[in-house]
Amino acid sequence: MKLRTLGSALALGVGLIAGTAMAEYPERPINMIIPYGAGGATDISARTIAEALGTAAGKPLIMANVTGAGGATGSVAVQNAKPDGYTMLFARVGSHSVNPAMKATLPYTLDDFRFVTVYEINPVACAVRPDSGIESMDDLVAKVAEGGVSYSSSGVGSLLHLAGAMVLKEFGVEDPLNAATHIPQKGGGEAATAVLNGTVTFICTNTSALANFVANNQLKPILVTTEEPVVGFDAPTANDLGKPRLNALVGWTGIAGPAGLPDDVSAKWGDWIVEAAQDAKFSDTMASMGSVIDVMSPEEAIDFINGQYAVFKALVDELGMRIEG
Amino acid sequence: MSLMDSLAAGFALVGNIEAFLMLFIGLVVGVIAGAIPGLSATMAVALTLPFTFAMTPINAILLLLGVYKGGIFGGSIPAILIKTPGTPASSATILDGHPMAERGEAGRALGMALYASCTADAVSNLALILFAGWLASFALNFGPPEFFALILFSLTIIAGVSGESLLRGALSALAGLLLATIGLDLVYGTNRFTLGNPNMMGGLNFIAVLIGLFAIPEIISMAWNPVAHLGKTRALGKSRCSWADYKNSFKSIIRGSMIGVFLGSIPGIGAAPAAFLSYSEARRTSKNQANFGKGEIEGVAASESGNNGVAGATLIPLLALGVPGDVITAIIIGAFMVHGLQPGPMMFILNVDIIYGLFIGLIVSSVFLLIVGSVAIRGFRFVADVPKRILMPGVLILCIYGVFAVNNNIFDVGVMFVMGWVGYIMMRNRIPAAPFLIAFILGPLLEDNFRQAMLMSGSDPIILFRGPITWFFWFLTCLTVFAITRSTLRKRVPLS
Amino acid sequence: MSQKSLHLRLGIVASLFALFLMFYAIPNYVFAPSNVRNIILSPKFWPYVLAGFTAFIGLALLFNAVTSATDTPFEDEETGHPEGSAPWMRLGALGAIMLLVMFGLPLLGMVWTAMLAFAACAFLFRTRHPVAAVVCAVVVPLLLYAFFAHVAGVAIPQGEFVRLP
Q1: Which residues of chain B lie closer than 8 angstroms to C46, CB-CB?
Q2: Which of the residues A4, A5, A150, A178 would you substitute to probe the C interface, choosing the one with the greatest number of C C-beta atoms within 10 Å?
Q3: Which one of A62, B112, B305, C94 is CB 3.0 to 4.6 Å from B253, fit for a cystine?
Q4: pTM for the structure as a whole
């Protein structure tokens, strides 16, 4: 009796594999790894595009949040996966350009991944408390000279960490690491709260993370890093202030596979993402989050990321921000 | 707009079947998800989020709030029945809930968990509606020094859950603190005890440690002696929670609710410490003190009121400031923003109808929770009747699935197994597990806030005493330590 | 066992562990950058504090064991297992099952591994309902799979051989 039950279960299983004959990619659902927590900017972006992408691909995408170590845990999971196109990663600015630029201890490099697209750009803004007496970047820089200025981030090696240092450096602060104190927090929400309750002086982060505070007049934006102004943010752009180099300081979300991803799989993703980005629901949600949809082909995406990495790496080396050990 | 107008506008929004239906569905989903270990309230809310994109804002948010509240209660069901907390918040419920189930009083424990949860939920919602603005501005006064003082005080809970020996409790807590240091350093980003393994860089998964520490040792004990449970009455509890039970625990429930509201309105603490604090306070003041940890119904009441008291209160910083109090409210903020709403002070002016609609929905949710919970208890009580030697392998499998699902990582299953053996060794050596868990939660908070405070002040320790809030908690800490020392010396809590 | 001997044992273990932390684990496995401005901000500071506390508690346990006069065993202590070495064998077997599960998960997939683990555990515990145990061993993992994969949308590991829909 026992044996028979086991036997029939096995027979059932064997029947199931027989069904999956060789067919064109994708022949089964694709696992998509999100290296950040549920409800975060990456997660919402990924889950919104997933449905449209699944329709384009013809197979559903299964979303899996693998969080930890600033995106490294999830990225490693994809780095070590089989490059068959059935395990892909939603890569983000933090995990794939700031982290590789800053951390010598990171268990992966950009070469371990093959990017198939970058589909979303998030502008970065710097903000202070309205009652801080800081009205502009010049005020902030003047205050740095006086001392006691600090900024928050969602952790060491996050975009926010680099952004704070980079903005100060661009505006003429010689040694931003010692002139201003970096106070890391446990996450993006905590980082914004730290400005609100006066723990730190300013924050530079994605506009989506600041939008509700700015709309409620709890925080005052003093800079956005894009060429164009950002809706709802009454602040000068980096170009207005004559600092076009800050344009490289933007957040993005893209999709990558392991390094050995075949060319045809990469090309397919390039097509699907173009189709998925047409989806009205996706563009509405992205707009309400303050993101700009900018679909890049695989080649453009790789150039874009390497370009940003080079800018960040140069800054990190100049300031000695690299984390060893 | 007057209060009456606001209320009317709120009613107009929620005054339809659909809104209440969403709330109800949310509670059902939440209770079921909470009852499955590993599928915590957080995950349930995250999984529900994409379904809400197409709904009207009020329906979407009521659905998510339903899932949240249901999940926090649902976690107590497996905590009581199979000693596996469904959500971290219900780990305090194990301490007395599971011994009650072992005694054949599962029904009574579950009933009390439900009534305490609903009461605390109602208190919490009232606090949100009446004091949101005041509590939120108070919460904004909490910077790193204040957190440090609060968490230092919270660590004194350990004395209350150490059981028969304070020394062994302290040993357990230290093990928890040490284990929590694994991962990347907060300030410098360097590796601590990661042994070069990328999976350890994010630190040990909390749920894996939690389930490993509580559920797996039970299974290992089963291997040690598969017939130990025979002869004990475990048959399902036909027993029910009586009115007298509720009345006797009422003081603890209200106190637990208050603790929950207070800790919930401060961003970044969460429901698990609230449950433990409420539990240790109830134990300290109860006349049945000796029975705590051996199946005292008041202990169940205190822990469940503590964690449900948080549920409504975390909405205080969310609505009044736009600040998420924990991971779940962070996801709910996402839902607000997807619908083009900006939580914060302006929302009370711009979207007052939605705010009042939410308030009305929240009040109704306490009643709905009572209904859904009663049905769920009836449905789950049969678990107590399953033969234990079949139940235990099932629990093992459930834990494997659940722990994997938390972070989609097989490594976490390994962490759970290893922690299971650690928990078993601790059990054999009479080292209590609860202090370990509290320390594992609070340790990183203590260290991080200490270092953030030091960064703020340029390493000047005076900042740790910077205002009335810190003084208050330092005073409480000193008072508690003094009380513990005195009672230890008098051998009331035997040191040895 | 009595409280006295338990505390003696725990005290020795805790003290040795504290020494291990202070002189081996922390220097070798906690990394601190060279430019730390203040010792209390160093990543090593908190681990050293904890190691110090561990040593303190260890010594307190030893002190307690040495000074306590009474040597009465715990009341609810299990006195001598009736089966001799069999319990130890079962503990070892359960450990082996857990180890095999870790290897089986990526290779066989979660569902098949769980079925084998369930059956193995049920027989290890010498269940009185072998038929029910086998049925449960097959049904429970399948039901859990259906729930987690299709309702909760979790990517349950599928393994190399047999893939479920």
Answers
A1: 181, 447
A2: A5
A3: B305
A4: 0.86
Measured at the alpha carbon of residue A30, what is the angle toward residues A29 and A31, in degrees to the nearest 5? 120
Are A38 and B331 an interchain contact pair (Cβ–Cβ within 8 Å)? yes
User: Which pLDDT band, with edges at 50, 70 and 90, does C20 fall under?
Assistant: very high
Cross-chain CB nearest to C155 (options A9, A64, A325): A64
Report helix angle B297-313 to B271-285, nearest 10.
Answer: 140
Domains defined along chain A, listed by start:
30-122+250-319 (3.40.190.150), 124-248 (3.40.190.10)
Contacts of C41 in chain B (CB under 8 A): 187, 451, 454-455, 459
Interface contact B233, partner A, CB < 8 A: no
The span from the CA of B5 to the CA of A268, in Å, is 56
- Residue A294 burial by Cβ neighbours in a 10 Å radius (0-12, 13-18, 19+): middle
Residue B237 is predicted with a pLDDT of 53
Burial of A297 (0-12, 13-18, 19+ CB in 10 A): middle
pLDDT tens per residue across span B238-277: 677 888 889 889 999 999 999 999 888 887 777 888 999 9
**Which of A33, A105, A187 is the closest to B191 by Cβ?**
A105
ipTM of the predicted structure? 0.94
- What's the token pair of residue B158? 């350990």
Query: How do residues B85-140 score in pLDDT, each as one tens digit?
Result: 888 888 899 999 999 988 888 889 999 999 999 999 999 999 988 888 777 778 78
CB-based contact B400 C110, cutoff 8 Å: yes
Q: B343, B268, B273, B360: which is closest to B309 by C-alpha?
A: B273
A→C interface, C-beta within 8 Å:
1-2, 5-6, 9, 13-14, 16-17, 19-20, 28, 31, 62-64, 105, 323-325
Count of Cβ atoms closer than 10 Å to residue A209 Cβ: 25
Quick: pLDDT tens for A136-191: 999 999 999 998 899 999 989 899 999 999 999 999 888 898 899 999 998 888 89
Smallest Cβ distance to C127: which of B191, B389, B408? B389
Q: What pLDDT sits at residue B189?
A: 87
Domain boundaries, chain C: 3-67, 86-151
